């Protein structure tokens, strides 16, 4: 395979700011990311926004069968060349990942591994976390801005703790797998990045995702206010606080994931 820089130059693939593109070219770094989900030999993998195919190469090299969704039509010829180098291992779908039913592309459960476009990363994550449980995917290995990654894995009472941490952690295990320096990208973004690895866990009984989502949106939407104020717009929430023994004078960042789950269960 020719070097990625050569592929990018030959196809005129300057990263698009409008599409949130920042390309990773370091083959060793990409190989490390591809190893995070574990052994991918003959496993199905969904990749969003492969661009010129840096991570795609690493996933294919690890033995995966990759389905890649790419919105940028400029990248399609470069990905087609990659498909020729790995016959029968790469399926490329041109389109917007926000409009495509990822689950409908697979008969089994794929891993999802992506250097996500920054402008749609959080929206996709919330969609995957809100799937019916157990979800249609085996694991998520996703690149985010470091700030977003820290919000996903944040512990209770930390500065980064908020709605995203609760939604990620109430029925899955989220870990920060590796930091990635801004200099690893072309062009370098203004911020540092990190890879988050998420594995599904057993869901607590009697809790509806929609209820938990509404609670956390209200609580963290006014995170500096006491719960008795921030949750007063959620029917039954104040009574539920009393029922599960959570002081209404507390603030959202002090409420653990388990306590949010108990509150949602009382309301479900």
From TrEMBL:
GO MF annotation, one: methyltransferase activity
InterPro entries: KsgA/Erm, rRNA_Ade_diMease-like_C, rRNA_Ade_Mease_Trfase_CS, rRNA_Ade_methylase_Trfase_N, rRNA_adenine_dimethylase, SAM-dependent_MTases_sf
Residue numbers binding S-adenosyl-L-methionine: 22, 24, 49, 70, 96, 115
Recorded coiled-coil stretches: none
GO biological process, one term: methylation
Ribosomal RNA adenine methylase transferase N-terminal domain sequence ranges: 29-202
Record bears the keyword Cytoplasm: yes
Reaction(s) catalysed by this chain's protein: adenosine(1518)/adenosine(1519) in 16S rRNA + 4 S-adenosyl-L-methionine = N(6)-dimethyladenosine(1518)/N(6)-dimethyladenosine(1519) in 16S rRNA + 4 S-adenosyl-L-homocysteine + 4 H(+)
Compartments reported by the entry: Cytoplasm
Keywords recorded for this protein, A-Z: Cytoplasm, Methyltransferase, RNA-binding, rRNA processing, S-adenosyl-L-methionine, Transferase
Domain of life: Bacteria
Family as reported in the entry's similarity comment: Belongs to the class I-like SAM-binding methyltransferase superfamily. rRNA adenine N(6)-methyltransferase family. RsmA subfamily.
Chain's role: Specifically dimethylates two adjacent adenosines (A1518 and A1519) in the loop of a conserved hairpin near the 3'-end of 16S rRNA in the 30S particle. May play a critical role in biogenesis of 30S subunits.
Name by which UniProt lists this protein: Ribosomal RNA small subunit methyltransferase A
Organism: Sphingomonas glacialis
